[in-house]
Amino acid sequence: MQDTKPTALRRSLLKAAGGALLAGALPRTVLAQQQEQQRPFAPKPGDWKGYEVVTRVSLQNPTGASTVWVPLPVIDTDWQRTLSNNWSGNARSMKVATDEHYGAKYLIAQFDAGVVPSLEVVSRVQTRDRAEDWKHGKAATETREDLALWLRPTDLMPLDGIVLKTANQIVAGARTDEDKAQRIYDWIILNTFREPKVKGCGIGDIKSMLETANLSGKCADLNGLFVGLCRAVGLPARDVYGVRIAPSAFPYKELGGKPAALQGAQHCRAEVWLKQHGWVAMDPADVTKVMRQETSEWIKDADNPIVAPVRKALFGGWEGNWMGYNFGHDVRLQESKTIKQVGFLMYPQAESNGEPYDSLNPDAFKYVITSRAI
């Protein structure tokens, strides 16, 4: 008598065959969407990678004596080493200036009237991925005096009023600093959104964002809000201003830069200081970027399979395809007649005959940023 009941092996084969038939019957677009859902994103600390980043400035239509300011990478940490900064051009004078509060450095190049300004700045750095080991702490070396700067308000980041009220509501009941940081990080992802129409990286006026309930913007707005909320509840935190210098090693097109043309690739990240871990990487703004721009459709579910790996990894980590310039807020530009101060410095700045150029319009400015692996 023949056994008509499938064995376990036959059942598994039939199930697999059925799955194959079903997959073959699905439209190609559905299959592509299913495959797209399976994306890795897990930066891990490892080998250093070297890059040469070149900023070339050629001012358009100067009307008199001109001045150009170019941010210089000066960060030296366990995730970035600044090797050198060199420059050349037809300026009358070139010198390095340092912000007195945050140590941000920038080149000042001054050009005579009648000269079409031309300037090249070559920076060499090494970077690597970051990922916090949450199971094992490490001895923090920062003193109370070291951390005081990262608890202060700035012009665009007040820590009282609606900022303090919002921060207290978010962390109510949290027991540890890590819990507070996690709540603020999640709140940013769940309550704000990236707005591609905002110029540059945004302004970072967090009080106005909360007062108007307009919680949209770009990295300087959203990561700036994260930093401000952290500081308001006593967590030292800081923005890190820089530029994406290479494509992502993971299948996320929005999380990398195009080395041949990096103008517009400027990106602000964040760090928070936790007692058991020291300075920890954060980037909730990039989570919102993936949600809004990684696919043709705006993903509004933060647990979506495309978003979830990024959301997990960017709490405590980031990819080393990015170069940081500085941590500065309210940077006063020396030798400036009109610009005087910028909320943050990660774009070249310029003025001619007392008239400022639009740093967010590189084609009219005119500047180009490129990078190459070394």
How would you sum up this structure in a few lines?
With 374 residues, the chain is α+β, with helices and mostly antiparallel strands. Helices cover 26% and strands 27% of the residues. The chain has 2 domains: 49-126 and 331-373, Sandwich (Immunoglobulin-like), CATH 2.60.40.2250; 130-326, Roll (C8orf32 fold).
Task: Characterise this structure.
- This protein has 374 residues and is α+β, with helices and mostly antiparallel strands.
- The chain folds into 2 domains: 49-126 and 331-373, Immunoglobulin-like (Sandwich), CATH 2.60.40; 130-326, C8orf32 fold (Roll).
- 26% of the residues lie in helices and 27% in strands.
- The protein has 10 helices and 19 strands.
- The chain has helices spanning 8-25, 28-36, 144-148, 161-171, 177-191, 206-212, 219-232, 284-293, 308-313, 362-365; strands spanning 49-58, 66-72, 80-89, 93-98, 105-111, 118-127, 130-131, 193-194, 216-217, 237-244, 266-274, 278-282, 317-318, 322-326, 331-332, 341-342, 349-352, 355-356, 367-373.
- The strands form 6 sheets. The chain has a 5-stranded antiparallel β-sheet with strand order 4-5-2-17-18, with no helix packed on it.
- 42% of the residues are buried.
- Residues 1-26 have low confidence and may be disordered.
